[in-house]
Amino acid sequence: MHDKTLKIWFRTLPVIGVLFVIAGFGWAIRQAAVDPVVYTLVGIGLALFLTLFAKAELANLKYYLHVVVYSLLVFILCAIVYLAIRQYDKQADLTEQNLYTLSDQSRQVLDQLKEPVEIVFFFSTDQPFRDIMRLYGDASDQIQFKVIDPIKDPVAAMRYGENIRTGEVVIRKVPEKGEGTPAPAAETKQKRISATEFGQGFTQMGVQAENALTNAIIEVTRAETIKLYFLEGHGEVSYDEAPMPQPGQRSSVASLSALRKFLEDPGMETARLNLITSGLVPEDATMVVIAGPAGDLLPPEISALRDYLTQRYGKLMVLLDVPQENFALRLPNLLGLLEEYGVSSPDEVIIDLANPFSPVQPIVQDYAEDHPITRDLRQAMMLSISRPVVSRMQGGGQWQVTELMRTSPSSFSKDLQEVVANERITPPPRSEMQPQTLAVAVSPRTPPQMPNMPPLEEPEGARLVVFGTSEFVQNSTLTQSNVAVNLMLNTINWLAEQEDVIAIPPRQLEGTPIILTPQQLRVIFVLAVILLPGALFFGGVSYSIARRRR
């Protein structure tokens, strides 16, 4: 009688187990999530279903109990190992673009912090910011964190500024009064970031958060404000945002708005400069930028720039363009100024046979590895029509001219009018081709190092960077090329004599995200989590039962 009752139970339990499993997956579909209820129902269901393989005999119950006890012991041991491993938070970022780790630029900035910086999150909990706090805290001992709920503790929030809102972030240098007694916002240098600017987590929004945080750290720790003046009055690249194109049309107006945003994010300032009306370079100018002039500068303007470079050790960035409308156009005054610093740029066009589809669009293949501007650049970059920039400094001299970027060896240059007049350009012999220089950097020459003497510091003096195209600073390039962003930011930091602090560019995500509706997510969930695993499991069980019966 006992064996008969036991057999009835052992035949009923697998059926009950299947019902528990169905109930568990049904709950998961209803909640669109796998929660503890689902784990409990499915676990009990699988345990009951496995009684299908048990023999309904009293003599075997002791054996089954041993199996259950050993299984529980193994499970407990696995849980203990998991909890022990969980104490170590080391992670490996296997994404191609390192989206879940700090960029090299951020780590470089954090490595060079010499004074404590406080990052204050105004939120009810630190849970959304734990990854950020871990990454920045591990990278530097100078970073301190606070989480303040502006609703529960408005007095503490007011010490960091007025009208602090939930989700905002404040980055500031820790005042001398110490961390425990925050000084009023007006008494210390700080940067306030809105919730929209910052974002949360280290996904795509995390890239935005890293940009905002690192740029804010650079801004609050920088000793002096960097201010760039963009020369106007000669048809340069537009300082303002390019106008919106008409429907069905594409805007061809080049603009500096993207560059200006990249500069203003870490606290730099930009302004216009008209030397005809001002007569001189303003005293607060860190550098002057001449971006793609279509006309030559007048002698008084050249004189003002010469005085700025020689008397004030000024910094100048010149981005030349190939004249495309007036082929007789020359820039004798501006090019004459550059000649004084060992740089010339003939009115020619670079032809690069490494680009078989459009030889007038040269490909940057070689970067100077010993210069701060380009030593970390490796990726090739295709440019639009460009002119060569040639170093005329031979041997000694006052100035050191470094070739920053060059094309492939299968390159040469031709006069612009000749290129336009001929539909097909006949290349010279291979022996006469050579890499063409696209940019140079000019700085005072360091005296020769004497034996057994300490290293000499770089002498003070003017600094110049000359490019053969203004494409690097235009929106069309900066919004699509991280190489161009790196190049421009490195150039500006080197000119500002802050080459050891290279600002972080935005990391651009490749590919197109797949956005699914809730209904599509539920269908995928049912197929991937329920039907496919269920078919494999029950199919295997059915096959085992069929073999046993045979």
Please give a structural write-up:
It is a single chain. Helix 1 (2-31) runs antiparallel to helix 2. The chain has helices spanning 2-31, 36-49, 61-86, 104-111, 130-139, 154-158, 195-198, 204-221, 257-264, 275-278, 299-311, 332-339, 416-421, 475-478, 482-495, 518-549; strands spanning 117-122, 143-148, 169-173, 190-193, 227-231, 269-273, 287-291, 315-319, 343-344, 348-352, 363-364, 366-367, 381-382, 390-391, 399-406, 411-415, 437-444, 463-467. The strands form five sheets. Strands 6-5-7-8-18-17-15-12 form an eight-stranded mixed β-sheet, covered by helices on one side. It has a four-stranded mixed β-sheet with strand order 2-1-3-4. It has a two-stranded antiparallel sheet with strand order 9-14. Residues 201-205 and 245-251 have low confidence and may be disordered. It is α/β, with parallel strands linked by helices and 550 residues long.
How much β-strand is present in the residues?
Answer: 5-15%
Counting helices, strands and paired strands, the structural category is alpha/beta
What is the number of helical segments per DSSP (H or I, 4+ residues)? 16
| Net shape | elongated
Instruction: Strand order, main sheet: write it out.
Output: 6-5-7-8-18-17-15-12
Number of strands: 18
Helix content: 25-40%
Largest sheet properties: 8 strands, mixed
Distance between the termini: 28 Å
Mind telling me the C-alpha Rg?
Answer: 34 Å
Average per-residue pLDDT, rounded, comes to 79
**Poorly predicted parts:** 201-205, 245-251
